[in-house]
Amino acid sequence: MSKTILFDCWGTLIEQGVHSPLKQVKEILGIKIPFSHYVVRAERVMMTHAFPTLKEAFLAIAKEFNLQPTEEQLDALIGMWNKSWMLAKPYEEVEEVLRELQKNYVLALVSNTDNIGVEKVLEKFGLKSYFAATFYSYQLGNLKTDRNFFYQVFDQLGVEAEDCTMVGDSIQSDIIPTKQLGMQAVLIDRKDQRDFPGKIKDLRELEGVL
Asked: What is the model's pTM?
């Protein structure tokens, strides 16, 4: 039986204030490659180390794709990204579910994220106290698709892969990598748009599949 539950943040526990911020970055910068190819490169640039400012983060993404953004584009990117975390909020059932699960499981937060806003959002809504530890890609220097990300998680928590269940909204970032490591993984599909075995549509369904 899994004793530790690892939760993704964005799209799993927290609803961002704007729709698909990374997709909007692609559109504002006019990046033409397929999203599946773009997103891995963009996350690796922006979310595997901390940036002093959002402007520096977006300049780094532009450099990755050999672009020279205008000041208007940079202003649009910064405004959109700040709106995304400033207006972010937990999904309706999140605090109730975390409170109950905390009684029987060790909970940890694992997220591909930049260093702008994530801690502020957790503190604003009083969620951080539910987690024994938080693991962010910008701190670990790896994305969740990198095995070393989870090896660092296991080491710090003192657990093995088979002791853990991963809960997330991305098949590519949350489900496939963790199943390859021997973890149980549960997909949350709030809009019920994906055909995937054992998925849940609400975190209140989680204990029934653990």
From this structure: 0.93
User: Which residues have C-beta within 8 Å of that of residue 90, sequence separation ≥ 6?
Assistant: 13, 14, 15, 125, 127
Q: Give 8-45 pLDDT, tens digit per residue.
A: 999 999 999 999 999 999 999 999 999 989 999 999 99
CB 14 within 8 A of CB 89: yes
* CATH fold of the domain at 4-15+89-209: Rossmann fold (3.40.50)
Residue 210's pLDDT band (cuts 50, 70, 90) = confident
Would you state the pLDDT for residue 195?
A: 87
Token readout for 46 is 């922006």
The DSSP result for the chain, as a single string, is ---EEEE--BTTTEE-SSS-HHHHHHHHHT--S-HHHHHHHHHHHHSSS--SSHHHHHHHHHHHTT----HHHHHHHHHHHHHHHHT-EE-TTHHHHHHHHTTTSEEEEEE---SSSHHHHHHHTT-GGG-SEEEEHHHHTS-TTSHHHHHHHHHHHT--GGGEEEEES-IIIIIHHHHHTT-EEEEB-TT--S--TT-BSSGGGGGGG-
Ranges of CATH 3.40.50.1000 domains, the chain: 4-15+89-209
